[in-house]
Amino acid sequence: MPTEALTMNGLDFVMVFRGYFKFKLFLMLLLYLGGPSAAFAVDGSAGINSTGSSNISVLIGKLIVARNFSDFSFGTYTYGSGDLNGDDDLNIASTYASITYQVVLNGSGTAGAFTISNGTSTIPYLAYYNDATGTSGRVTATSGVPITGQLGAVDPIEDLTLNANVSMQILQADLDTADYGTYSGSLALIFQPE
Questions:
Q1: Contacts of 171 (CB under 8 A, 6+ apart)
Q2: Residue 41, number of CB atoms within 10 A of its CB
Q3: Mean pLDDT of all residues in the chain?
Q4: Phi and psi (nearest 5°) for 124?
Q5: Residue 54 — φ and ψ, nearest 5°?
Q6: Is the omega angle on the peptide bond into residue 36 within 30 degrees of 0, that is, cis?
Q7: By percentage, how much of the chain surpasses pLDDT 90?
Q8: Max alpha carbon distance in the chain (Å)?
């Protein structure tokens, strides 16, 4: 295996002109010579003045927050009075400008089903998400399935502007055939930057 000795600033490097060893030598030289990606603190030298320096770095992750949730409380249902509809404008904010995000909706029924229960019986409901305020343009959610490519999250993360909507609907046909009782459940929304 051919080799050649190289002396630089009093240090001896052995260059091996084969695959891994050549690459390893290149990395050693790059670090020793302070190459483009090297970032080291520098001590000052002795003298009338001495200046040292430190490099500073921090990583701010892609974060997202969803706020302004309210409960859907419909009170007592009157037989034959129609569907029950509820919607809630939300604030979705992020640490990343022009972010797209996805949201997954899960109900509290079996396997995340969109149902409310009185303990023995259930009533199904429909759930929707919109990446703008109001219900116009909303998308029907399927439990556990991401709704992708959502826009409009505000930056910075402290911005409280309302910019999304969650809505739900309980159909009259399901309400009229339900057994007696107080029905309740929950709807979870899980947001993630894309």
A1: 83, 124, 125, 126
A2: 8
A3: 84
A4: -80, 160
A5: -130, 140
A6: no
A7: 68
A8: 93
**Where would I find the H helices in the chain?**
19-32, 172-176
Q: How far is CA 18 from each of CA 22, 27, 97, 113, 182, rounded to the nearest angstrom?
A: 6, 14, 46, 60, 77
Distance from C-alpha of 165 to C-alpha of 162, rounded to nearest angstrom? 8
CA distances to 63, 143, 158 from 95, in Å: 5, 27, 9
Reference 167, options 149, 142, 141; nearest CA is: 141
Note the pLDDT of residue 39: 58
Burial class (CB in 10 A: 0-12, 13-18, 19+), 110: exposed
Return the pLDDT at 66: 97
Flag whether the pTM goes above 0.90: no
Please report, as a single letter, which amino acid is at residue 13. Answer: F
Q: Could you tell me the strand order of the sheet in which 147-150 lies?
A: 147-150, 101-107, 187-193
Nearest-angstrom CA–CA distance, 147 and 63: 18
